[in-house]
Specification:
two-stranded antiparallel sheet, 5 helices, 31% helix
Length: 163
């Protein structure tokens, strides 16, 4: 219960973040935001993900149009790019952490890769550490700090069934 209360309060306080963690201001406007699993991604997995992203360099999995996944201790994490620069504009630690968190949530919830205002889309809401939330996160945040947060899914509301 405490997690859901915290999640709702965080979603209400989104303007306080350095970057809006939602893909756009209308995300899930026609649905209901459902906070899901909390996550903690440690430094070893974040470092492994960074190396994997560099090695893959935009490759596709054999026989598909999907990018391959990177092996981590929490399971294979996809390498799909973040839409609309929601992970930041640079290839820095902030970007790597945001991208891994988003793709971790996408993998868990098999949600739509589109981050439109439709039911089934998913976002990763980053809660910490403080340096990743600060306005100077591109220079101050380090993968060695890890990253934590929770996954949120846009669920259809009775008034707005899934498309």
């Amino acid at each position: 219960m405490q997690f859901r209360t915290t999640a709702i309060l965080l979603l209400a306080a989104l303007p306080a973040f350095a970057h809006d963690p939602l893909p756009d201001v209308d995300w899930c406007a026609g649905g209901r935001v459902a906070p899901k699993e909390e996550f903690r991604l440690g430094s070893p997995d974040l470092d492994r993900y960074r190396i994997c992203l560099k090695q893959l360099g935009g490759r596709k999995s054999a026989g598909t149009d999907e990018p391959p996944a990177c092996p981590t201790s929490i399971g294979p994490v996809p390498t799909k790019p973040c839409p609309n620069q929601t992970c930041g504009e640079f290839d820095d630690d902030y970007h790597v952490a945001q991208r891994m968190a988003l793709n971790h949530c996408r993998r868990l919830y098999s949600a739509s890769t589109s981050l439109q205002s439709t039911a089934g889309s998913v976002v990763a809401i980053i809660e910490g550490p403080a340096s990743i939330l600060d306005t100077s996160h591109h220079s101050d945040y380090s993968l060695s700090e890890g990253v934590s947060g929770f996954c949120a899914v846009c669920e259809a509301s009775p008034e707005h069934p899934a498309d």
